[in-house]
Write a structure and sequence with these properties.
21 strands; Alpha-D-Glucose-1,6-Bisphosphate, Chain A, domain 3; alpha/beta; 22% strand; six-stranded mixed beta sheet; 4 domains; six-stranded antiparallel beta sheet; 457 residues
Amino acid sequence: MLPINQKIFKAYDIRGIYGEDFDNELAYRLGLAFIELRKADSDYINGQTFNIAVGRDMRISSPLLKENLIRGLQDGGANVLDLGLVATPTFYFAVGKNNCNGGIMISASHNPKQWNGFKLVRSKGVPISGETGINILKDKILENKFIPAKIRGQVTLQENSLEEEIAYTLKRADINKIKALKIVADAANGMGATYLKKIFEYLPTTLIPLNFDLDGSFPAHEADPLKEENLEQLKKMIISHQADLGIATDGDGDRIFFVDNQGKTINPAIVRGLLAKLFLKEKPGAKIGYDVRPGKITADLITNNGGQAIITRVGHSLIKEQMLKEDIYFAGESSGHFYLNTELGCFEYPSIMILKLLAQFSETSLPAANYVSDYQKYFASGEINRTVNNKDEVLKKIETQFSDGDINKLDGVSVSYPDFWFNVRASNTEDIVRLNLEAINPEIMKTKTEEILKLMV
């Protein structure tokens, strides 16, 4: 086997270049290690046989990784529910719906075609992060002292998880409110195409599908809608078809972005705020989460609609852990993740988010661009990355320089003033610090961004 590059064990998942950083043997060992990890958890009942769900995306290396992962889980004594080809949200849903004891999704999300990896959860989709198990799995995999179970587990194929997810989704939104809108959706040849295609079968809308063929080589463009260049094709289609709205998903379908009728990306902070407003109608006074990266319109909409605004760290596993711990009903991340805390678990429900927003846009006579313009109150720098020699020193320097501001150190250093606010945080894996800043006008945004960047060296 290939030597394992230990950098693949990250804060939120396991991810690297297939055939260079790891190979199929890692997948096999991961299956064995995962069962040992779950047996050490407090909910394990002695002699219990685990039921573990496994899903995969459309990447070229995913079938072989799945085959070896399942073999490892079986040798560890677990029964495996093989979900086949599914989007990551469908995988999470299936773990909760089938009362599985955990699950592993094979995907590298938005990363280029050479990459692959694993997202890991316990029961009800509770995420396994570096702090809650990935580092333990790393040690077990590298040590490789596994003892196979006396009784090998069995595999059951389940092919209806998407249909069950869509049925659940339709119960969570009033589709009768949705008008005959024209929607362009770009799945970037990724797994979002599976639920996009299915959900629009139930709607009076006209769907114009873009890059819906599943293809792990990503022939159209990179499957990362956070990068504006990857939305260019979608934006042109919206304009040429005079569409009402555009939707873009990432490689494994757990992130979703919206583009207005003028071909402009709707700020995820606005999307998050609008969704918060809608979910607060369902659950008045609920706790609503948003990550530390500036997006003040979200907090405005939460408090203005009677909710409790809760700041979270960055990263899907960390946010979900906090949502479960603090009973946060809905949360959104600047990167396009939108989470809901339900009886089945706490994870991304992009189909529900689509239906909620389509119903909201259907209730107004305004085009999407005009509707969201009322919420474009602040001016953002966007995320700016800088390579530095010492990440901790940079954070300390910034904290000292802005010590008269309101400082929060939940994730990096966040500082707030009446006319601008920002967050600087360090990468978990590289010598990089990231700046996100917002201000009440473009002049302050530009001046303060330049001032902080001078400290990020």
